[in-house]
Design brief:
- Helix content is 79%, strand content 0%.
- It is mainly α.
- The longest helix has 37 residues.
- It contains 13 helices and no strands.
- Helix 1 runs antiparallel to helix 3, helix 1 runs parallel beside helix 8 and helix 10 packs across helix 11.
Length: 267
């Protein structure tokens, strides 16, 4: 869930950064000079990819600092042999449960000696961290590209940030719903709601991250990732058609009807 919440914050924060950058370039008329040298689609993708690299750099720093902190704690705080004991905790819990069922009071006392910190630490050690980190990077990149292209299209369609409110609601609702569903996913990861929200591209970056620690079948992860890639291609194509027209439109309040005309414009 922490990974899903970070995904929500990063995608929304960097996507909004792209939108504000597009609005700033449009209102200052700098974009008129830039598009004389590059195509509008190249300008849009350059801005999206540039902000994505900033986000990846921050994420890489977080990973390095977290690993360094774990190594420091392991070397200076935990006594020798503690890591081996923590790795054996799940087996000890299972033996304790069996003994409790058989009526053994001695093993019950042994299980009660473990602290909550040890249980949390033991659960963290047994998570598939390689899959979690890979999935986080993949869903961050794809989720960011998906929403950043939408934010770039919104920024090109308006003249100031106040006018973005009418277009922001359809984009933010899926992100908020995904965060709410991710909270329930921690309790019932196999529910139908969690499954579909982890497959639908608009919500899968957040919900799938919350499901992965619960042994999600590989075909579900592959299906979710495949749909994300296909959706990104379609979204970038759609956003590029809006961007190339909207970036040079001034002084007119844009409506959904006007945006639909830009999408169907073939000139």
């Amino acid at each position: 869930y922490i990974g899903g919440f970070m995904m929500y914050m990063l995608v929304f924060m960097f996507g909004a950064m792209v939108m504000r950058g597009v609005i700033e370039e449009k209102t200052s008329r700098i974009v008129e000079v830039i598009v004389s040298s590059v195509k509008p689609v190249q300008l849009m993708l350059g801005k999206i990819i540039g902000v994505a690299l900033v986000g990846l750099t921050q994420f890489a720093l977080w990973v390095v600092l977290t690993l360094a902190l774990v190594l420091i704690v392991k070397a200076n705080v935990l006594p020798e042999g503690t890591m081996e004991q923590l790795q054996q905790l799940p087996q000890s819990f299972a033996e304790a449960d069996q003994a409790m069922a058989a009526g053994s009071e001695t093993t019950t006392m042994t299980a009660e000696e473990f602290t909550m910190f040890q249980k949390i630490f033991a659960g963290a050690l047994n998570m598939p961290w390689g899959l979690i980190i890979f999935s986080f990077v993949f869903y961050f990149l794809t989720g960011y590209l998906l929403y950043a292209s939408l934010f770039a299209a919104i920024g090109s369609a308006v003249d100031n940030e106040t006018e973005t409110q009418q277009f922001m609601l359809p984009v933010t609702i899926p992100i908020i719903l995904a965060l709410v569903v991710a909270m329930g996913t921690m309790q019932i990861p196999e529910s139908s709601l969690s499954f579909w929200f982890s497959i639908i591209p608009l919500t899968s970056p957040i919900v799938m991250i919350a499901r992965i620690p619960f042994d999600v079948p590989p075909w579900e992860i592959a299906l979710s990732m495949g749909l994300m890639i296909l959706t990104i291609v379609g979204t970038i194509w759609m956003a590029a058609k809006i961007y190339r027209t909207g970036i040079l439109m001034y002084g007119k309040k844009t409506s959904y009807k006007e945006i639909w005309k830009w999408l169907t414009y073939k000139g």
